[in-house]
Specification:
heterotrimer, A mainly beta (100), B alpha/beta (482), C alpha+beta (377), B: 482 residues, alpha/beta, eight-stranded mixed sheet, five-stranded parallel sheet, 20 helices, 37% helix, C: 377 residues, alpha+beta, eleven-stranded mixed sheet, 10 helices, 28% helix, 28% strand
C-alpha cells in the first residue's frame, strides 16, 4: 500500500477505472503508480499458475505490472502515463489476444 | 531539444542514436548535438533522468532534503540538452538494433502503439542498470517490490509505503533508500542487512582507494544517518516473504535463529547490474565481471563494444554510478563523432582528456564498494528448491538444479528448451543471472564457462499488428524498384 | 575431455539432429562412434528451427526417408527416452483461393498415383473444423494427419544423450579444421588434435561444404538464416500446424499457448561469427500474412525473433548417402530448412548403409554426385 507524501506538489486529478471501479490519481503518475496510490497491489494473473502479481520493479524490467488499457492487453503499466478516462483492467492469465 | 510526440515525427536517419535518457544518454546526446551531429535520444520513460534522476523535471517532491542533494544535480543534465537540436523521444522503446548493409544501423522503434524502422550512423546504448535479481521464497507475492521501485514511486509520484515497511538486502542504495523513505514519512519497521560479515576481509585490501574516493564522505554520511534512525538488523543469512495471495510478513534468519516480522511492504535490494538485453541482442560481446559479479558488455577505453559503431555508455557497461555514467556518455559521444569524421583522432583525444581524468577520479573507491557489498551466495543461488527463479514462467530453483544434474544441461540456452526459463516477456532480465549461478554451481564451473542467454530482438514485445503495419523503409522500397 | 579415444569405427562431424541421430543409430548397431561438434549439440539449425515434424508438401525424392522418420517420431520416447515435446495434431496446408485449391488437388492426385497416401484433400468445412480461426475466405486445403511438432533443441539433445548412453563419444567444443586421407583411414584434424577412422560422416550442416571441399567434392551450398518469431502465451485456438503455398507462412501454437510464426523469410547469416541479423522488413510481411489469415492474432505480442544458420542446396534437396569419390565417406547435410523431421529416420538409414552397405529405403536423387563437376578428373 502506498500513500501520497505530505508536502507533495499539487496536481490535477485524473479519473479512470480499474476493473470497472471509478478511481482517481494524479496527473503525471504512470498507470502502475496510479494503481499503487489506490491501494491496488495485484494487477495481473500469471498465464502459468494464475497467481496474482503486482508491480515489482516500476522501471520496465520485470513485466509484472502488465495490464489491459483501453482494450489493449500486455501493456507495461509502469511505462504508460495515466490519462483521463482510461479503462484499466486486470490482465487475466492466458488472455485473449484482442484484449477481451 | 526537439521533443518528439508521435512516431511520424522521427526522421529516417540520424548521425547518432542514443538509447536511454539517464545521465549517460543525456550527456552523450548533448555532447553529440553540440558537435553539430544530428541526434535522436530515445527513452521509454515518460520523462528524462533515467532511474537515478527519475522524474527530475516533473517530480512532485518539494522538500529537497527528502531525495538528497545528489538527486537534484540531475537537472543540469537536462538543462544542457534543452538548447541543442537533439530530437528527444520520450515513451519511445528501441526494440532492435542491428547492423545494416551500408555500415550503419537499423533501429526498431515503438511509440504510442506504432512501430518504425529508422537508420543511424552510430549507436550509443545508455540503457543503464537494473536491480540484481534477489530470489527468495515468496518474492513474487504482491506487496514485495524492489527498493528501486519504491524509490521510483517516491521520485515520480511522491508515493510512500503506507503500512509497516521492511527493507532488506545489501548495497549502498539500500541505505540511501532507507534514508529517503524515512525522511518522506514511511513507517520502516526493520532494515535487514544481508551484507556478509566476511566481505569486510575481502574489501579491506581496496580500502586505501576508498579513502581517496568521492563515495567516502557520501557513503559514511548515508550509513550513519540511516543507522542512527532506523531499526537495523545485520548479519541476515536467510529471508522468506510470507502470505498466501499477498505479503503478510517476512521471516528473517540471523545467527541461526528465525523470527517473523509482520509487514505490508517488503522492499528488496541486492545491488545493481548492467541492463544488457539490447546490447546482447545486438550481438555485442559480453563477459562475466568477477568483481561486480555480473555479466557486462565488453568495451574499450572509449566504450566501444565489439561491434564497430555501437558504444555502450554508463552503468549498462559496468556499474560506476551516476556521475561516472555522464562522463562515460560524454567520452562515447566524442568517439562516435570521430568515427563519423566530425572530429579527428587528435581532436577527440584533446577534448576527452579532462573528462577521462574526471572519470578516473569518480571511479576511485568503487572496488571497495563492489567487494564489500557483494551478495552472499545464498542470495545469488537460492538454496530452497521451491523458490521461484523465473517469475514469468514460474520455474523454481529445484527444477533448474534437477534438470542441470539429470540431463547434463550445460548452459542457460539449453535450459530454456527444457524448462522455458527466460522465455517469458521479461526475456531473462529477472532470472538470467540466477539461472547461470545455479547451473554453474551444479556443474562446479564458473559463470563465464556457463555462459548467458542469447537474447533476441524485439527486446521489448511488439504487437503483431504493429509489426504488420511497419512502414516500408527506403532500403526496402529501393530493393523492390531494383 | 577424456583423452582416451582418438579413433573409432565411425567419426561423425556435426552435432545437429542428423549427426546425433546417426551417431546414436551407429552405436545401436554396435559400432564405436566419435561425434565432433564445434559448439554444442543443437546450437544451430537443429536447435532453433520451428520444430515442425512434417511430411506434408515434401518433394517426392524425400518422401521415403520422411516416412521412415515419421514412424520413429511416433515412438520417439521409446527410442531416445525423452518425448522431445512431440505432439501430433497434423499439419494443414491452407489454400487461399480456388486456384490454390486446384493445385492442392493436383498434388494429392499425383501422390496417390505414386502410392503415397499421407496427404489428404480437405474442403472448406473440414478446414474450418481443423482450423476454426482461419479466415473465412479460404476454400480448403490439404492435411497430413500424422504430422506434428517437437521442441528442437530438446529433441537434438535427447539424441545426443541417448547416443552417449550407448557408448558414443560426443566431443563438443571441438572444431574440425581439415579432413584428409591417412593410409587406409581418414584423419580428422581438429583444434584439439587429430582423430582417425575408416568411416566418416559429414553432417556439418551450414559448414558441410568446407568438409566436402577437403574431400574434393565441392558443393554449391548456400548458407541461409530462416527467421522465426514467437508470441506470448495465448488462449488455445489452433491445434494443427498451418502452412501456405502461395505466400510464405508456417504457423503453430504450442501447448503452452505461445504461437510460432515462420515461413522461410531469410535474414543474414554470418557463419564465421555464429551470428545472424534479422530483416524486419521481411518479418513485417510475415506478420501481415498472419494479420490477414488469423484476425484473432492481431494484438498478440511478439516476444522474440531469431534465425538459425542452415545449409540450402540449389534444388532444395539434401545431400544424403555415400561419397561419389571415396570409400568410407558419407554425406548427410544440406537439408535446406526442412531437415528436422528427417533427423531420426535419416540417422537410422545412414547407420544401416554404414553398417551393412545398403538400405531398403530409396534415397535416389539425393546423392552428392548430382553436383559433380563434369570436368573432374
Amino acid at each position: 500500500m502506498f500513500r501520497l507524501m505530505h508536502e507533495a506538489k499539487p496536481a490535477e486529478a485524473l479519473g479512470f477505472t480499474f476493473d470497472g471501479r471509478a478511481l482517481t490519481a494524479r496527473a503525471g503518475d504512470t498507470v502502475a503508480a496510479a494503481l499503487l496510490a489506490n491501494g491496488i497491489q495485484a494487477c495481473r494473473q500469471t498465464p502459468v499458475s494464475g497467481a496474482d502479481r503486482g508491480p515489482y520493479c516500476m522501471m520496465g524490467v520485470c513485466f509484472e505490472c502488465l495490464v489491459v488499457i483501453d482494450g489493449v492487453g500486455n501493456r507495461q503499466g509502469c511505462l504508460v502515463p495515466l490519462r483521463e478516462g482510461m479503462r484499466i483492467e486486470t490482465q487475466a492469465g492466458r488472455r485473449h489476444p484482442d484484449g477481451g | 531539444m526537439i521533443t518528439i510526440e508521435t512516431i511520424g515525427q522521427v526522421a529516417e536517419h540520424y548521425d547518432i542514436a542514443v538509447v536511454g535518457a539517464g545521465p549517460a544518454g543525456l550527456a552523450a546526446a548533448s555532447r553529440a548535438a553540440e558537435l553539430g551531429l544530428s541526434v535522436l535520444l530515445a527513452d521509454e520513460n515518460p520523462a528524462p533522468g533515467g532511474q537515478i534522476y527519475r522524474a527530475i523535471t516533473t517530480t512532485p517532491v518539494t522538500k529537497r532534503a527528502v531525495l538528497g542533494e545528489d538527486y537534484w544535480k540531475g537537472g543540469a543534465l537536462v538543462d544542457r540538452l534543452r538548447p541543442t537540436n537533439a530530437a528527444y523521444a520520450p515513451g519511445c522503446t528501441v526494440w532492435s538494433v542491428a547492423p545494416d548493409e551500408a555500415g550503419g544501423f537499423e533501429l526498431g522503434l515503438s511509440l504510442g502503439g506504432q512501430a518504425r524502422l529508422i537508420a543511424a550512423g552510430q549507436v550509443i546504448l545508455a540503457t543503464g542498470a537494473q536491480e540484481r535479481p534477489f530470489p527468495i521464497p515468496g518474492w513474487t507475492l504482491p506487496g514485495v517490490m524492489t527498493a528501486g521501485a519504491a524509490q521510483i514511486a517516491l521520485k515520480a509520484s511522491g508515493l510512500v509505503p503506507s503500512g509497516r515497511t521492511v527493507i532488506a538486502g545489501c548495497g549502498p542504495l539500500l541505505y540511501l533508500l532507507a534514508g529517503q523513505l524515512a525522511a518522506a514519512g514511511a513507517n520502516i519497521v526493520a532494515v535487514l542487512d544481508t551484507t556478509p560479515r566476511r566481505n569486510w576481509l575481502a574489501a579491506i585490501a581496496a580500502f586505501p582507494g576508498f579513502l581517496r574516493s568521492p563515495y567516502l564522505a557520501k557513503g559514511l554520511k548515508l550509513m550513519a544517518a540511516a543507522r542512527g534512525r532506523l531499526p537495523f538488523k545485520t548479519g541476515v543469512t536467510a529471508l522468506a516473504a510470507g502470505g498466501s495471495d499477498k505479503l503478510t510478513g517476512v521471516t528473517v534468519t540471523r545467527g541461526g535463529a528465525s523470527e517473523t516480522i509482520p509487514c505490508d511492504a517488503l522492499l528488496l535490494h541486492q545491488g545493481v547490474i548492467p541492463g544488457i538485453n539490447l546490447a546482447n541482442a545486438a550481438g555485442c560481446a559480453q563477459h562475466f565481471d568477477t568483481v561486480q559479479h555480473c555479466w557486462t558488455p565488453t568495451v574499450d577505453d572509449w566504450f566501444a563494444s565489439s561491434i564497430p559503431g555501437i558504444a555502450i555508455a554508463g552503468d549498462g557497461a559496468g556499474i560506476g554510478g551516476a556521475e561516472s555514467a555522464a562522463l562515460r556518455g560524454e567520452i562515447a559521444a566524442l568517439d562516435a563523432a570521430r568515427r563519423l569524421g566530425r572530429l579527428s583522432e587528435a581532436e577527440r583525444n584533446e577534448k576527452a582528456a579532462p573528462t577521462q581524468a574526471e572519470l578516473a577520479r569518480s571511479l576511485r573507491g568503487r572496488r571497495f564498494l563492489d567487494l564489500l557489498y557483494r551478495p552472499a551466495p545464498q542470495f545469488l543461488a537460492p538454496p530452497a528448491d521451491e523458490t521461484i527463479v523465473c517469475r514469468c514462467e514460474e520455474v523454481t530453483a529445484g527444477q533448474i538444479r534437477d534438470t542441470a544434474r539429470r540431463l547434463g544441461v550445460t548452459g542457460p540456452n539449453q535450459m530454456k528448451a527444457f524448462l522455458r526459463c527466460g522465455m517469458g516477456p521479461c526475456q531473462g532480465r529477472l532470472c538470467g543471472p540466477t539461472v547461470v549461478e545455479l547451473i554453474a554451481q551444479e556443474r562446479g564451473v564458473s559463470a563465464e564457462e556457463t555462459g548467458y542467454y542469447r537474447l533476441r530482438p524485439p527486446v521489448k514485445p511488439v504487437t503483431l499488428a504493429e509489426l504488420a503495419a511497419l512502414p516500408p523503409t527506403d532500403a526496402a522500397i529501393k530493393a523492390v524498384v531494383r | 575431455m577424456s583423452e582416451a579415444r582418438r579413433s573409432a569405427d565411425v567419426i561423425v562431424i556435426g552435432g545437429g539432429i542428423h549427426g546425433c541421430s546417426t551417431a546414436m543409430h551407429c552405436a545401436m548397431r554396435g559400432l564405436s562412434v566419435i561425434l565432433i561438434e564445434k559448439d554444442h549439440a543443437g546450437r544451430h539449425a537443429s536447435g532453433v528451427n520451428a520444430g515442425g515434424v512434417r511430411q506434408l508438401a515434401r518433394h517426392v525424392a524425400e518422401i521415403p526417408l520422411s516416412n521412415t522418420s515419421m514412424a520413429l517420431w511416433h515412438r520417439i520416447e521409446d527410442l531416445v527416452d525423452d518425448d522431445c515435446g512431440f505432439t501430433s495434431d497434423g499439419q494443414v496446408l491452407v489454400a487461399e483461393d480456388e486456384e490454390d485449391l486446384g493445385n492442392c488437388r493436383a498434388r494429392v492426385d499425383d501422390l496417390t498415383l505414386r502410392g503415397f497416401h499421407h496427404e489428404e484433400l480437405i474442403d472448406a468445412a473440414e478446414l474450418r473444423r481443423l482450423v476454426p480461426a482461419v479466415s473465412d475466405a479460404c476454400p480448403g486445403g490439404v492435411v497430413s494427419r500424422r504430422d506434428g511438432a517437437a521442441i528442437p533443441l530438446r529433441a537434438t539433445q535427447a539424441f545426443k544423450r541417448k547416443a552417449q548412453s550407448l557408448g558414443a563419444d560426443i566431443r563438443e567444443g571441438v572444431r574440425v579444421t581439415r579432413v584428409a586421407r591417412d593410409g587406409a583411414n581418414w584423419r580428422v584434424e581438429t583444434d584439439h588434435g587429430a582423430f582417425h577412422s575408416s568411416r566418416i560422416v559429414n553432417a556439418a550442416g551450414a559448414w558441410a561444404d568446407r568438409i566436402a571441399a577437403d574431400l574434393a567434392e565441392p558443393v554449391p551450398l548456400e548458407v541461409i538464416a530462416p527467421m522465426l518469431m514467437i508470441t506470448a502465451r495465448m488462449p488455445a485456438f489452433i491445434k494443427p500446424v498451418v502452412i501456405l503455398r502461395k505466400r510464405k507462412l508456417s504457423f503453430k501454437q504450442f501447448e503452452n499457448g505461445t504461437v510460432l510464426i515462420g515461413g522461410g523469410y531469410l535474414g543474414r547469416a554470418i557463419r564465421d561469427e555464429n551470428r545472424t541479423v534479422l530483416d524486419w522488413g521481411k518479418l513485417a510481411t510475415n506478420a501481415k500474412t498472419v494479420w490477414d489469415l488469423f484476425p484473432i492474432m492481431r494484438g498478440a505480442p511478439i516476444l522474440r525473433a531469431w534465425a538459425g544458420i542452415e545449409a540450402r542446396m540449389p534444388d532444395d534437396l539434401p545431400v544424403f548417402g555415400r561419397s561419389a569419390r571415396h570409400e568410407g565417406v558419407y554425406h548427410q547435410f544440406g537439408f535446406s530448412a526442412h531437415g528436422f523431421q528427417l533427423g531420426p529416420g535419416a540417422g537410422a538409414v545412414m547407420a544401416e548403409i554404414i553398417a551393412t552397405g545398403s538400405s531398403n529405403v530409396p534415397i535416389d536423387g539425393l546423392g552428392i554426385a548430382r553436383f559433380a563437376v563434369s570436368a573432374q578428373p
